[in-house]
Design goal:
- Helices cover 41% and strands 21% of the residues.
- The protein is an alpha+beta fold and 159 residues long.
- The chain folds into two domains: 80 residues, no CATH class; 73 residues.
- Helix 2 packs antiparallel against helix 4 and helix 4 runs antiparallel to helix 5.
- The protein starts with a helix and ends with a strand.
Length: 159
C-alpha cells in the first residue's frame, strides 16, 4: 500500500489499518521454528560450561510444539478487507469488504502453509564425561550418530 493511497483513505479506514497492523505485529514472528537450546535448569549452566566433552547417547525425531498462530490467515484477511472496502458503495461495499476478508484469509493461510518448514526436530541427548546429561534440539543434525564423541560449546555440539 503506498503512502499516497493511505493518505487518501478516510480517517476511520486509516485507524482500522493502523490498529490491525499494530495488533498483528507481535504475532508475525510466532510461526518461526525453535532455535537451539540446552534443556537444563539454570543452576546447572555454570557447571555445564566447565564440562565440554561427552558422548551422544540418543537421537530422537520429534514433533515440535512450536506452531504458528495462523498469522498468514489473519494478515490476509486484514489486507483483503482493506482492498475489498475500496470497491462499491453502501451495501455493495460491505459485500466487497466481506469477500475481501474471506478471500484474503484463504490466500494468506495457503501462503503460510506453503512457506512452513517441517515441524519435526531432532532431540540429541549427550552424556557428559562427568555423568551429567544435556539435551539439544536441532532442525538438522548432519552426520551425527549415536556413540559419537562430541565437544560442547555453549548451546552447540561439535564432532
Amino acid at each position: 500500500m503506498s503512502l499516497q493511497f493511505f493518505r487518501q483513505m478516510p480517517v476511520s479506514q486509516r485507524v482500522t489499518v493502523l490498529s490491525a497492523t499494530l495488533l498483528l505485529l507481535p504475532v508475525s514472528g510466532c510461526s518461526s521454528q525453535p532455535g537451539y537450546r540446552v534443556q537444563q535448569p539454570a543452576i546447572q549452566q555454570n557447571v555445564m560450561q566447565q564440562q565440554q566433552y561427552g558422548t551422544v547417547r540418543s537421537i530422537q525425531l520429534m514433533n515440535s510444539s512450536a506452531t504458528g498462530f495462523g498469522g498468514g490467515a489473519i494478515l490476509g484477511a486484514v489486507l483483503g478487507g482493506v482492498v475489498g472496502n475500496q470497491f462499491g458503495s453502501g451495501s455493495g461495499r460491505k459485500v466487497a469488504t466481506g469477500a475481501g476478508l474471506i478471500g484474503g484469509a484463504l490466500a494468506g493461510n495457503e501462503i503460510e502453509k506453503r512457506n512452513k518448514t517441517s515441524n519435526q526436530i531432532y532431540r540429541v541427548t549427550v552424556q557428559m564425561h562427568n555423568g551429567l546429561t544435556q539435551q539439544f534440539d536441532y532442525q538438522q543434525i548432519g552426520n551425527l550418530q549415536v556413540g559419537d564423541q562430541v565437544r560442547v560449546e555453549g548451546q552447540q555440539i561439535f564432532l
